[in-house]
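hey can u run this one w/ magnesium ion bound, need the structure tokens asap thx
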Amino acid sequence: MDFMTQQEYNAGIRRVLISEEELQEAIRKAGAAIDKEYAGKPVLFVSILKGAFVFLADLMRAVSIPCEVGFMQAQSYFDGTESKGEVEITLDLQQDIRKYHVIIVEDIIDTGRTLSLVAAKLRERDPLSLKIVTLLDKPERRVVPLDADYSLFTIPDYFVIGYGLDLGEYYRNLPYIAEYNIFSDNEKDA
Ligand code: IMP
Ligand code: MG
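ok here u go:
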């Protein structure tokens, strides 16, 4: 995306959907639930870059059990409307996951296509267990059946930005989740 002016940037933020306080409160609860469920177990948080890095950073600090973290990046290819596709792991974990209870940390589940392929690849590597935690879930958009084990917020089919989520790589640094103003692209020419 071309460099955005401050005015264009501000115009893209339509309204706050989930405030900083609401995010932190939900993350505190999720952290406490993880502490309880995984006490005494080796935990590896797996984050799929880049969108989930902000959520991961807060979620990790909301748990107090010993845990490790690893990062992956994936590129997925789908032919047309087919829900089946190929996923290429462009950045992989260093850990052998057979020793861990793996918790995949996602920013948002939309169609579910990329995450279902990545989760299948990880299951083949035989972790002690595998669960999915997602900050946001857009169930209306689902193309493949995929349920998170823990979803913090269910949202309608809006394009959202902030708290790690981007529009053309911008807005990841907003401390809240906002609805993107799709009309702001036209307004800048008006
Ligand atoms: P999917 O579930 O395979 O369709 O892909 C989910 C990915 O698409 C997420 O990890 C995000 O990077 C991106 N994505 C989906 N919906 C949104 C949105 O509303 N805002 C920003 N990124 C989104
Ligand atoms: Mg993205």
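The longest strand covers residues 67-78. anyway lmk if its weird
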